[in-house]
């Protein structure tokens, strides 16, 4: 099943100016300015994205509603399809994607994504399609070793699922993190992973609130030409309502799609 959602930028309100001559001067100046901007930058192309959801142990439908309504709607202009299996990879439109947002947890690839689609997914990412992998997407398809290469680390375990997790920024200079708070708290479980590969760029650490032990929680990695963002918190839909977490996902989508500083890995 595929659901398509389009977000277009709102029309800016124009202020009314009194005075006939002044209004005409302003109007002419705006036309010239508009032509100059268009000539220099050209029209902005929509971000083409899919939000891939589904699986077990999480309320993915509720999470998807918040991601669509409160987060991706702010990443404008964008067009987003909600997908629930790998069949979107069979469409010619897959070649035009800018980013794949993953929020799923599948025990197995069987019945979800076939061998041809697996290869297509990796080829697309290697060719430049970005990925934002949220929470359990990081360890979904446990028998598919090839997808682990996207992240540069492997899931080991997590503890209780109802902890308050403190997420602390470690690289404020990265465009994904620069407008976030130094730290924020979400309700989730704390993931433990193998050490990150040397080419991973660590952005944030996480710990159980009030405790000192931290684990990598947000990082990026290049997979060929594809930008991959791994975001580990967010077991519960309410996590997606935290303002800093919303900014993290929105910035991650923009960066993965090449709309933020593309030189920062």
Q: Could you describe the 3D structure shown?
A:
By secondary structure, the chain is α/β, with parallel strands linked by helices. It has a domain at 47-154 and 222-256: Class I glutamine amidotransferase (GATase) domain (Rossmann fold, 3-Layer(aba) Sandwich), CATH 3.40.50. 24% of the residues lie in helices and 29% in strands. It has five helices and twelve strands. It has helices at residues 20-41, 60-71, 115-126, 145-148, 243-256; strands spanning 2-7, 47-55, 78-83, 99-105, 130-134, 155-158, 163-169, 183-188, 191-193, 201-208, 215-223, 226-231. The strands form two sheets. It has a ten-stranded mixed beta sheet. The radius of gyration is 20 Å and the shape is globular. Mean pLDDT is 85; it is low at 7-43.
Descriptors for this entry?
alpha/beta, 10-stranded mixed sheet, two-stranded antiparallel ribbon, 12 strands, 29% strand, globular
| Helical proportion, percent range | 10-25%
What's the alpha carbon Rg, rounded to whole Å?
A: 20 Å
| Biggest sheet: strand arrangement | 1-3-2-4-5-12-11-10-7-8
From the helix content, strand content and strand pairing, which structural class follows? alpha/beta
Low-confidence stretches: 7-43
What is the chains' assembly state? single chain
CATH architecture of the domain at 47-154 and 222-256: 3-Layer(aba) Sandwich
Name given to the CATH homologous superfamily of the domain at 47-154 and 222-256: Class I glutamine amidotransferase (GATase) domain
Instruction: State the helix count.
Output: 5
For this structure, the CATH topology of the domain at 47-154 and 222-256 is Rossmann fold
Highest-level CATH class of the domain at 47-154 and 222-256: Alpha Beta
Could you tell me the strand content as a percent range?
Answer: 25-35%
Overall geometric form: globular
- Give the tally of β-strands: 12
The SSE string, one letter per element, is: EHEHEEHEHEEEEEEEH
Sheet of most strands? 10 strands, mixed
Terminal Cα span: 34 Å
Output mean pLDDT: 85
């Amino acid at each position: 099943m595929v659901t398509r959602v389009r977000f277009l930028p709102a029309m800016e309100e124009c202020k009314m100016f009194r005075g006939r001559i002044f209004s005409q001067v302003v109007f002419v100046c705006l036309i010239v300015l508009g032509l100059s901007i268009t000539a220099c930058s050209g029209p902005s192309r929509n971000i083409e994205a899919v939000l891939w959801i589904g699986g077990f142990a999480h309320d993915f439908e509720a999470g998807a509603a918040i991601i669509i309504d409160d987060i991706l709607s702010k990443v404008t202009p964008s067009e987003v399809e909600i997908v629930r299996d790998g069949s979107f990879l069979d469409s010619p439109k897959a070649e035009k994607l800018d980013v794949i947002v993953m929020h799923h947890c599948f025990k197995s690839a069987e019945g979800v994504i076939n061998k041809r689609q697996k290869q297509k997914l990796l080829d697309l990412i290697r060719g430049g399609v970005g990925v934002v992998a949220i929470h359990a997407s990081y360890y979904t398809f446990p028998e598919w070793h090839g997808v682990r290469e996207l992240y540069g680390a492997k899931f080991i375990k997590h503890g209780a699922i109802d902890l308050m997790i403190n997420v602390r920024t470690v690289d404020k200079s990265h465009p994904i993190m620069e407008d976030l708070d130094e730290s924020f708290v979400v309700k989730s479980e704390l993931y433990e992973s193998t050490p990150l590969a040397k080419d991973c760029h660590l952005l944030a650490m996480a710990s159980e609130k009030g405790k000192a032990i931290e684990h990598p929680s947000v990082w990026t990695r290049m997979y060929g030409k594809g930008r991959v963002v791994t975001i580990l918190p967010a077991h519960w839909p309410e996590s997606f309502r935290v303002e800093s977490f919303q900014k993290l996902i929105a910035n991650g989508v923009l960066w993965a799609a090449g709309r933020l500083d593309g030189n920062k890995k």
